[in-house]
Design brief:
Layout lengths: L2 E6 L5 H10 L4 E7 L2 E8 L2 E6 L7 H7 L5 H13 L6 H7 L5 H19 L6 E6 L14 H10 L5 H6 L6 E4 L14 H9 L6 H7 L4 H13 L3 E4 L6 H23 L8 H12 L1
Antiparallel strand pairs: 1-5, 2-3, 2-5, 3-4, 6-7
Helix pairs in contact: 5-6, 6-10, 8-10, 9-10, 11-12
């Protein structure tokens, strides 16, 4: 078992850790611990395929009951059977074998269960983490496929803290651009309408302050969305390229003035002929 990555959440935030694993398309298990709580997140080629935490996992039977997929009586019966087998059988396996649910229902609820676990995990501000290459859940687990970017975005949407902005966007003069996918990954990202509107303003030229002024939503919400997009790895800071258009125009105007002088001098019979095509090409450069 090769230890690939470890550290403290105070130094590397969980969104940053998730992004690192995703961009390098790693496969294995990320273990996160805070006090006596431990959560395991499983990755395959940079995508999340499962998550488990004995203390944090949302009860599968409760989720099935809330969605009215099973009844209270069916849940109680499945729990009694599980107790008789000393927990050697998983609750989902018992309910499918009894015909209480089908495989599709079970997979949908397990995905919801994993998502809720991950969203709660992203609120952690302290703790430690370790990543183990090529360690996976047992074959008994039903795995899912979740986009890291979507998990980060949804988890951060549920966190209403201005600290998120202060820590990730400290300078309103900074300029951001849309980041490219890394490691040959195809990113499957679901953005809300407000997030699309903000993304459209991130063009590599506007500063954070200018984006806030141009945004159709209020400043606080704009900054929060920008911080979320940054943590999800969808936008990245860039250096503002110097606009040389004014200098180029000034140079072309100077060239034109010199050519006109040569042309008028030639017309008066004092210098060789300057081709008119050369003048026209200079005019076209200025127009374009």
């Amino acid at each position: 078992m090769e230890l690939g990555l470890q550290g403290n959440i105070e130094k590397f935030t969980l969104p940053e850790i998730f992004q690192l694993i995703a961009s390098s398309r790693k496969s294995g298990t990320l273990g996160i611990q805070r006090d006596d709580s431990i959560i395991m997140v499983y990755f395959k080629e940079g995508e999340i395929i499962y998550g488990y935490g004995p203390r944090q996992t949302f009860h599968l039977g409760q989720l099935l009951k809330e969605k009215k997929i099973i009844t209270e009586e069916q849940l109680e019966q499945a729990v009694r059977i599980q107790a008789r087998t000393e927990n050697s059988k998983r609750l989902g396996e018992i309910m499918t074998s009894r015909g209480f649910i089908d495989r599709a229902d079970l997979e949908a609820v397990i995905q919801k269960q994993v998502e809720e676990l991950l969203y709660s995990l992203l609120s952690w501000q302290t703790g430690s983490f370790k990543f183990y290459e090529n360690q996976f859940p047992t074959d008994e687990e039903i795995t899912v496929r979740l986009s890291v970017e979507n998990v980060i975005l949804e988890g951060l949407r549920r966190i209403d803290e201005m600290n998120l902005v202060k820590e990730n966007l400290p300078d309103m003069a900074e300029v951001y651009t849309i980041s490219a996918a890394q490691g040959g990954r195809t990113r499957d990202v679901s953005l809300q309408a407000k997030e699309w509107n903000i993304m459209a303003l991130v063009d590599g030229h506007r500063s954070i302050g200018e984006i806030c002024k141009a945004s159709p939503i209020d400043r606080h919400e704009t900054l929060k969305k920008l911080a979320q997009l940054k943590l999800a790895g969808l936008i990245t800071k860039t250096e503002l390229k110097e606009d040389n258009s004014s200098a180029s125009l000034e140079k072309m105007v100077g060239n034109l003035a010199n050519l006109l002088e040569e042309y008028l001098t030639e017309k008066s019979g004092r210098r060789p002929t300057i081709p008119e095509s050369r003048l026209k090409s200079t005019f076209l450069e200025i127009e374009n």
